[in-house]
Known about the structure:
Blueprint: E1 2-6, E2 9-12, E3 17-24, E4 33-38, E5 45-50, E6 57-59, E7 67-72, E8 77-82, E9 91-97, E10 109-114
Parallel strand pairs: 2-10
Antiparallel strand pairs: 1-3, 3-8, 4-5, 4-9, 5-6, 7-8, 9-10
Amino acid sequence: VRLVESGGGSVQAGESLRLTCATSGFSLDEYSIGWFRQAPGKAREAVSCISAVENFTYYLEAVKGRFTISRDNAENTVYLQMNNLKPEDTAVYYCNRLPRRADYWGQGTQVTVSS
């Protein structure tokens, strides 16, 4: 099982980024996937999740209306579209298969938002 994040970068407040979680080693259509983030000095938190069945979604209250999670099972990929980014969104973003496992964490992708 492998999950690899990409798409992070440094942007100004109000700009957008799309994160990509490329998966391999399992059938993506059988699993829910979550996006998580960890800011310096803070605990890792769940930002958004998408279910395997019917694509039910969850969003952290702080990102509702700005972030959109989606999946392309044929491409074994999960996306996180992040619009209207704010400085408080600055963090390393990770994806994980659910239920999450410590050995599935990747290197993450850094998102830095300046005001």
